[in-house]
C-alpha cells in the first residue's frame, strides 16, 4: 500500500482578478504535492472555490446575472489560471456542488444534535449602499471600509456554534501536538490573541442572506461562512455524501496550507468542529505570510495587484513559480518587485541553470555529436557527493515546509556544476586527443548532474524539468526521486536531443 499525503489550499472566493498573492498558496501547495508524488506517495491535492455569501449575490445582481451564473463564469476563469500555473490538483470542490451542500447540511445537523449549535441573536453593523454586513473589526474609523460611509446597527435571529465549550480540549490538544500550528510564530499569535483571551461562540447561520446553503431543519436560515467553507476539506473526500469514497483513505489531512489571516478559522474553529463531530484532527496547519507590493498586502481593495497571467506570458510560468517559492521567506511576508523578479530570472535561472544546461549540451554535441563514447576512463566523486548532500538537506527542508531553503540546496549543486566546468575546462581537454576519454568522463558527470538537478527541480519548475529531461533523452525510471539518489545510472552512450534556451535573459 503506498503512503498517502493529503494537502489542501483554502477554497478561493470567486474573484475575476485573482492576483499574484493569491497564487502563492496554490503554487506552494502544488510544489509540495508534486514533491510527495515524486517520492511515491499517493497524493490528494484539494483546492476549490468558496461561492456563497451576500457580496457575491449583490455582485451578480449588479451585472444582471443569477449568483450561480455569475460564479460559474468566474470559477472557469480561476480554473484557467490554475492550468496556466500548472497546478496539479487532484480534486476541485465548489461550495455550490450538490454533494458539498449535502455534507454541510448533515454536518450542521450533527453539530446541532450534539447540542453544540443554539439559537441566538446576531448583532453587527450594516452598510446600506454596499449592502454588506460588517463586524466592528472590519470598520475603518467606525465607517464602511469600502465606501467610507456611515453604517447602521443591525440585529437578527441566528444560530451560534459553542466554540467556548472546546477551549479546554483545544488547549490540551495544542499542548499534546506542538507542531500542529506552524510556524511557531503563528502558534504564539493564536495562543495570545485568542486562546488566552477566552474563546467566544461564533455565528454560523443568517436569516437575511439568501445565497447560501439552507439549514435543512429551519430553512429560514442559511449556513453562514465557516461551517460551509471549512467543511469542504471533508465533503471533497465523501464525508456525509455519496459522491466520493476517500475519507477513510486520506483523513486526517496531512497539511492545510493557508494564509495567515485565516489561521484562526483553521487552527481554532475547524478543530473545534471536528471535535464536536468526533473526527480526528488534521496533522498540521501552516500559515504562510503575505506577498507585499509597495509595502502593503497585495489586494484588490488596495489597488496594488499584479496580474499573474500577464507575468506568466512575459516571463514564463516556471520563472514565476520559482520567484514565488524562492523569494518568499516561508511563513513570513515577502516583497514583490519587478526588479527582484528580473534579477532572479537573470541570475539564478538564465546565468546559473540555463547556462549550465546550454554549455553542457553544446559541448556534448560539439565534441561527441550528442553521443558520448561507451567507455570513459575518468571517474571522480566531487559532483556525486555534492548531489548526495543536497538531496538529504532538500528532503529535510521540504518536509519542514521551507521551499526557499530547499531551492538553496539545489542551487548549491548548480553552482558546484558550473565551477566544475570552469575547473575541468573541457574546451582545453578537447584540444588534446590523448585526453579524449577524460573529456567524455567530464561531460558524463555534467550530464548526470543535470539529470539529478532536473529531478530536484520537478516540484517547483515542472516544465523546465521536463525540457531538460527531453534534451537528456531520459526514460521515466531515471527521473524518479529515488533514481536521483543513485549516481551514474544513465548509460554512457545515451543519445542527446537538441533543445531551445531554457530561460532567456530579460532586458530590464
Ligand atoms: O480566504 N499574499 O479566500 P481568499 C499571500 N475563502 N497570500 C494571499 C494574498 C497575498 N497578498 N492575498 C490572498 C479565503 N492570499 C476564504 C478561505 S478556506 C475554508 C476559506 C491568499 O480568496 C489567502 O491568504 O480571500 C488565502 O490563503 C488564499 O489566497 C485565498 O484567499
Overview of this protein structure:
The chain has 508 residues and is of the alpha/beta class. 48% of the residues lie in helices and 14% in strands. The strands form four sheets. A six-stranded parallel beta sheet has the order 3-2-1-11-12-7, sandwiched between helices. Helix 11 crosses helix 12 (317-327), helix 14 packs parallel to helix 17 (436-457) and helix 17 packs antiparallel against helix 18. The longest helix has 31 residues, at 338-368. The mean pLDDT is 94.
What average pLDDT do the residues reach?
94
- Amount of beta strand: 5-15%
Helicity level, as a percent range?
Answer: 40-55%
Shape: elongated
How would you write the strand order of the largest sheet?
3-2-1-11-12-7
- Main sheet: strands, sense, barrel: 6 strands, parallel
Which structural class do you get from the secondary structure elements?
A: alpha/beta
Q: Which ligands appear in the coordinates?
A: ligand ME8
Radius of gyration: 26 Å
* Number of alpha- plus pi-helical segments: 19
Sequence stretches where pLDDT stays below 50 over 5 or more residues: none
**How many β-strand stretches?**
15
What is the CA–CA distance across the termini? 51 Å
Amino acid at each position: 500500500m503506498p503512503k498517502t499525503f493529503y494537502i489542501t489550499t483554502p477554497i478561493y472566493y470567486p474573484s475575476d482578478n485573482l492576483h499574484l498573492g493569491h497564487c502563492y498558496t496554490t503554487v506552494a501547495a502544488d510544489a509540495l504535492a508534486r514533491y510527495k508524488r515524486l517520492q511515491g506517495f499517493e497524493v490528494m491535492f484539494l483546492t476549490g472555490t468558496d461561492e456563497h455569501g451576500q457580496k457575491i449575490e449583490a455582485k451578480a445582481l449588479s451585472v444582471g446575472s443569477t449568483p450561480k451564473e455569475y460564479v460559474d463564469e468566474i470559477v472557469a476563469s480561476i480554473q484557467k489560471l490554475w492550468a496556466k500555473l500548472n497546478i496539479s490538483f487532484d480534486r476541485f470542490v465548489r461550495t455550490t456542488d450538490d454533494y458539498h451542500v449535502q455534507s454541510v447540511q448533515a454536518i450542521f445537523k450533527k453539530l446541532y444534535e450534539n447540542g453544540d449549535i443554539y439559537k441566538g441573536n446576531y448583532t453587527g453593523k450594516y452598510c446600506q449602499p454596499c449592502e454588506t454586513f460588517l463586524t466592528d473589526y472590519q470598520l475603518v474609523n467606525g465607517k464602511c471600509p469600502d465606501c467610507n460611509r456611515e453604517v447602521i446597527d443591525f440585529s437578527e435571529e441566528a444560530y451560534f456554534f459553542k466554540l467556548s465549550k472546546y477551549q479546554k480540549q483545544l488547549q490540551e490538544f495544542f499542548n499534546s501536538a506542538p507542531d500542529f500550528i506552524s510556524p511557531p510564530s503563528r502558534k504564539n499569535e493564536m495562543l495570545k490573541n485568542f486562546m488566552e483571551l477566552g474563546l467566544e461562540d461564533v455565528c454560523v447561520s443568517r436569516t437575511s442572506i439568501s445565497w447560501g446553503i439552507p439549514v435543512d431543519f429551519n430553512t429560514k436560515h442559511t449556513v453562514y461562512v465557516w461551517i460551509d467553507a471549512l467543511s469542504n476539506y471533508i465533503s471533497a473526500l465523501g464525508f456525509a455524501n455519496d459522491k466520493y469514497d476517500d475519507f477513510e483513505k486520506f483523513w486526517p489531512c496531512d497539511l492545510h496550507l493557508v494564509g495567515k489571516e485565516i489561521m484562526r478559522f483553521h487552527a481554532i474553529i475547524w478543530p473545534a468542529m471536528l471535535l464536536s463531530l468526533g473526527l480526528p484532527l488534521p496533522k498540521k496547519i501552516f500559515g504562510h505570510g503575505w506577498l507585499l507590493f509597495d509595502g502593503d498586502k497585495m489586494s484588490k481593495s488596495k489597488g496594488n495587484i499584479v496580474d499573474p497571467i500577464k507575468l506568466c506570458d512575459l516571463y514564463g510560468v516556471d520563472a514565476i513559480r520559482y520567484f514565488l517559492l524562492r523569494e518568499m521567506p516561508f511563513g513570513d511576508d515577502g516583497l514583490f518587485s519587478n526588479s527582484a523578479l528580473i534579477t532572479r530570472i537573470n541570475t539564478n535561472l538564465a546565468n546559473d541553470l540555463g547556462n549550465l544546461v546550454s554549455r553542457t549540451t553544446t559541448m556534448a554535441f560539439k565534441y561527441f555529436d550528442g553521443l558520448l563514447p561507451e567507455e570513459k576512463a575518468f571517474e571522480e566523486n566531487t559532483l556525486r557527493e555534492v548531489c548526495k548532500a543536497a538531496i538529504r538537506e532538500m528532503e529535510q527542508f521540504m518536509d519542514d515546509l521551507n521551499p526557499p531553503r530547499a531551492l538553496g540546496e539545489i542551487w548549491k549543486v548548480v553552482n558546484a556544476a558550473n565551477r566544475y566546468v570552469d575547473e575541468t575546462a573541457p574546451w582545453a581537454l578537447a584540444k588534446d586527443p590523448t585526453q579524449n576519454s577524460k573529456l567524455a568522463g567530464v561531460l558524463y558527470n555534467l550530464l548526470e548532474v543535470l539529470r539529478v538537478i532536473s529531478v530536484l527541480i520537478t516540484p517547483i519548475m515542472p516544465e523546465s524539468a521536463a525540457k531538460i529531461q527531453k534534451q537528456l533523452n531520459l526514460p521515466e525510471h531515471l527521473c524518479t526521486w529515488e533514481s536521483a539518489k543513485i549516481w551514474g545510472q544513465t548509460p554512457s552512450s545515451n543519445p542527446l536531443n537538441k533543445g531551445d534556451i531554457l530561460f532567456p535573459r530579460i532586458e530590464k
